[in-house]
Design goal:
- The protein is an alpha/beta fold and 370 residues long.
- It has two domains: 108 residues, Aspartate Aminotransferase, domain 1; 242 residues, Type I PLP-dependent aspartate aminotransferase-like (Major domain) (Aspartate Aminotransferase, domain 2, 3-Layer(aba) Sandwich), CATH 3.40.640.10.
- 42% of the residues lie in helices and 16% in strands.
- The chain has 13 helices and 15 strands.
- It has a seven-stranded mixed sheet with strand order 2-10-9-8-5-3-4, sandwiched between helices. Strands 11-12-15-14 form a four-stranded antiparallel sheet, with helices on one face.
- Strand 3, helix 4 and strand 4 form a beta-alpha-beta unit.
- Helix 2 runs parallel beside helix 9 and helix 11 crosses helix 13.
- The longest helix has 22 residues.
- The structure holds pyridoxal-5'-phosphate.
């Protein structure tokens, strides 16, 4: 049984290079320290409509946006409850896509996995084949855009184009660890549902989940007849339409931080942030090629999380510990027992820059004697 470890007042702050939470700017954090106000006050309508409409503008989407108190996991569950009667197809290529499949199973759905070796990307032609050859009707194809455990960026745009050929099959994308950093044209590729968590590439505190929902997905939930209450598309969006607020009490301080950060994101633009993330990804890939190797299949490397193969056999746990002790920087080991020491991961997302990432790679070089 886990014993209480008393939280104290004296922790040394670490610069976060983990795949989330990531660094949050001081002025964004400061927004959270304000006198509380009521979630049914006009001020709340101002706040919520501002962050919803700014998010739509940032993402360049005509679809609806829900900002829900909770984490991205909430939308694994609610998108399944809202859209899937029976069958869901989940290409699994790492731990998070596997968890998406597991969530659907726990909700009693019939899950067909399309299994990829970890490190490989999901291929649109495999999705086409599965949709064409299966004797089942799939209500949903659910794909992770950025598989944080392996550092793979799946081609959700091309997969979306395939799924769109099947009008009664909805396309759900888990973009938890890349939306806000990586670029995706949601509307052009018919992505019905795409969701993320605030603590990743949005560079906000954890506690909010962002979900973009197409009209078709909204209608499908109504036609289906049963849905999630908390994360029901209709409940969230109708409430927004009528009152410009959330159906239940939201994490107001985090929404205040969100407003501030989203203004910054609007200034930088979706394309601008994607460009900065591409530069960081390219920097880390070149560094990895010099000292180690990238783990993902070539051409499918993530823009926000580098998963680096430990070809030198360094002691990953020890290196992480020393970099933390000597440099106050935190980066991650490989995911789970499968990749624990075989890989390590650098989160280069949110407000990081090539310069700040270089500080980490310099520290790793120093500690691991590269
Ligand atoms: C790809 C992916 N999906 C889902 C999740 C779950 O997100 P959260 O912990 O914010 O619910 C994570 C968390 O790291 C993730 O990386």
């Amino acid at each position: 049984m886990t014993k209480k470890q008393e939280y104290t007042d004296d922790y040394r702050d670490k610069t976060l290079y983990i795949p989330g939470p990531t660094e949050v700017r001081e002025d964004v954090l400061a927004e959270m320290v304000q006198p509380m106000f009521g979630h049914r006050m006009d001020r709340m309508t101002d706040l919520y409509t501002t962050i919803v409409e700014d998010t739509k503008e940032y993402l360049g989407t005509d679809n609806d946006v829900i900002i829900l108190t909770g984490s991205g996991t909430a939308f694994w569950e609610s998108s399944t409850l809202n859209l899937v009667d029976e069958n869901i197809l989940v290409p699994t290529c790492g731990s998070f896509s596997e968890r998406h499949a597991n969530v659907a199973e726990r909700l009693g759905k019939t899950v067909d996995r399309l299994e990829y070796e970890w490190g490989q990307a999901v291929k649109p032609e495999d999705i086409r084949e599965a949709l064409e050859t299966s004797d089942k009707h799939y209500d949903v194809v659910a794909t992770v855009m950025n598989e944080s455990s392996t550092g793979v960026r799946n081609p959700v745009e091309a997969i979306g184009d395939v799924v769109n050929e099947y009008p009664d099959t909805y396309f759900v994308v888990d973009a938890v660890s890349c939306l806000g950093g990586d670029y995706v044209d949601i509307d052009a590729h018919g992505i019905d549902v795409i969701f993320a968590s605030s603590q990743k590439a949005f560079a906000m505190p954890p506690g909010l989940a962002i979900c973009v929902v197409s009209d078709e997905a909204y209608d499908r939930e109504i036609e289906k007849g049963t849905a999630s209450w908390y994360g029901g598309f209709q409940r969230c969006l109708d409430y927004y339409d009528r009152k410009g607020q959330t159906h239940s009490t939201p994490a107001i301080p985090i929404m205040l931080a969100y407003r501030k950060q989203m203004k910054r994101m609007l200034e930088e633009t979706h394309e601008g942030r994607a460009q900065r993330h591409t530069e960081m990804a390219e920097y880390v890939q070149a560094w990895a090629a010099e000292h180690f190797a990238m783990f993902p299949e070539e051409g499918y490397e993530s823009k926000t999380v580098a998963c680096i193969e430990n070809t030198q056999g360094i002691d990953v746990a020890e290196t992480i510990e020393q970099v933390s002790e000597e440099y106050d920087m935190a980066f991650s080991n490989g995911y789970g027992s499968q990749l624990g020491e075989k890989t390590f991961r650098i989160g280069h997302m949110g407000e990081h820059t090539v310069e700040s990432i270089t500080e980490l790679t310099d520290a790793i070089e120093d500690v691991a004697d590269l």
